[in-house]
Amino acid sequence: MIQPQTDIANSACIYLCYSASRGVTAFTGGSNYRWASTALKEAGFIGLSDGTYCVPPFAPDATRKALLALTRLARTHRAAISTLDRPFLGDVASRVAQNLPGDWSSEIVVHSVPVWQQDHLDWLWDRGGLAHTLITERVPYAALLTNGTDELLMIERPGHEQLFIGACLPTDFNRRFPDNRHFSKTPYAPNSICPPHNRSSQPRPSPHSCSPATPIPCTGSAPTGFPTPSWRAKKPWTPGTRSATPSPMNRAGP
Fold first, then answer.
1. Is 123 left (phi over 0), alpha (psi -120 to 50) or beta?
2. Please, which of 70, 116, 126, 127 could form a disulfide with 166 given CB 3.0 to 4.6 Å?
3. End-to-end CA distance of the chain
4. Is the pTM value of this prediction over 0.85?
5. Euclidean distance between CA atoms 232 and 222, whole angstroms
6. CATH (residue range 6-83)
């Protein structure tokens, strides 16, 4: 059972954080996250394809104007504002991707409602802190790293100075056992790694320690009919381009 967090107690929540590359960055959460989205747009924030919002970077006057307008519009649209004291997860994921062997890229996945974070469980190959946190705690967003073959999922543990990075199953893997157990509950799944989380660190996880390089032996076949989460259906992202695939933020409509 996911524990109540800010965006659930307040049915619309705006998360604000700072990105070294984007400047002030925002994303939304709560059952009425669309109210928060409306407030951000009216305040002058620009919606990006990954479900986040930002103001023109390195433009102090525009940023100040947008934030002042947001404090007023958030009240109008009954949205709470929460300021994160950690750097934007997208920046951290980019540094990790740059330090992995091979050609890796990263993208942000916003979990505006709790069920979106649970979509990861069908694809996660982990029995450590990553899977446990996704099951028991509210995780408002995550980062997905890919080299076109392997995929890694990165999250922040709410309320702790911890990052978790774990492996996802390849897209052609059966996602579940016949009895509906997730791969994250199998005894041979690896533990996610927990690199340090601070502004000066550049964690270097090895994909060979947690990525499923060969098929896992198992019996039976997975049941059919499970829809593929929209974030999982995206095509591999090419550095220097912006995906046109709608993010989870938009899959439920405007």
1. alpha
2. 126
3. 28
4. no
5. 18
6. 3.30.70
